[in-house]
């Protein structure tokens, strides 16, 4: 198993992995990103995310997308794992652990305080895997999201005063 930083040549594979992940997460039509979007996010003039590719025998079998966050509580940055996906045939090969280990090492090397992500509550295999690594669920937190019309409505609200 080899873990390496993504290159611009990986963009089509990254987008396919994102589509495969969305299908696994029961949202097969949720990915609207294009190759241009992925390229800009990873390799544009102001990159927003980092990506790693897991390879077995020279072929991509998984990926991770992550980005820097900041905690006012610790006063330090951290990483947020946006996507982690390993092709079904490669699960159990160590690819997922290798991807997470590489990100954890990057966080440690950069002096970051945290490495966080979310997981769907029905995804028992992943939950078990994360707990085995020593990750702790943050059950007292609930994720909220503004998107689409709700995001536009809030953005259009006039400021008080």
> Which architecture per CATH?
3-Layer(aba) Sandwich
Low-pLDDT segments, ≥5 res: none
Envelope shape: globular
| Total of domains | 1
Number of helices: 5
Helical amount: 25-40%
Category from helices, strands and their pairing:
alpha+beta
Biggest β-sheet description: 5 strands, mixed
- Going across the major beta sheet, what is the strand order? 1-2-3-4-5
The CATH homologous superfamily is called Gcn5-related N-acetyltransferase (GNAT)
Radius of gyration: 17 Å
How confident is the prediction overall: mean pLDDT? 95
- Under CATH, the topology is which? Aminopeptidase
Terminal CA distance reads: 58 Å
CATH class: Alpha Beta
Fraction of residues in β-strands: 15-25%
The total of beta strands comes to: 5
- Run of helices and strands: EHHEEEHEHH
Give a verbal description of the structure.
With 161 residues, the protein is of the alpha+beta class. It has a single domain (2-156), classed as 3-Layer(aba) Sandwich (Aminopeptidase), CATH 3.40.630. Helices cover 36% and strands 24% of the residues. The protein is built from 5 helices and 5 strands, in the order βααβββαβαα. It has helices at residues 11-24, 35-43, 95-110, 124-133, 148-156, and strands at 2-5, 50-56, 59-71, 76-86, 114-116. Strands 1-2-3-4-5 form a 5-stranded mixed sheet. Strand 3 and strand 4 form a beta hairpin. It starts with a strand and ends in a 5-residue tail after the last helix. The mean pLDDT is 95.
């Amino acid at each position: 198993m080899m873990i390496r930083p993504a290159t611009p040549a990986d963009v089509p594979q990254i987008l396919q992995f994102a589509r495969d992940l969305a299908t696994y997460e029961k949202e097969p039509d949720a990915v609207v990103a294009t190759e241009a979007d992925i390229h800009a996010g990873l390799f544009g003039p102001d990159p927003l995310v980092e990506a790693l590719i897991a390879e077995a025998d020279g072929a991509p079998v998984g990926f991770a997308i992550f980005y820097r966050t900041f905690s006012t509580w610790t006063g330090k940055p951290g990483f947020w794992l946006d996507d982690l996906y390993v092709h079904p045939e490669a699960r159990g090969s160590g690819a997922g652990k290798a991807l997470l280990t590489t990100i954890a090492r990057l966080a440690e090397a950069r002096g970051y305080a945290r490495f966080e992500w979310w997981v769907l509550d029905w995804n028992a295999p992943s939950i078990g895997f994360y707990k085995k690594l020593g990750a702790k669920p943050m059950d007292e937190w609930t994720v909220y999201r503004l998107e689409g019309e709700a995001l536009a409505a809030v953005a259009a609200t006039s400021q008080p005063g």
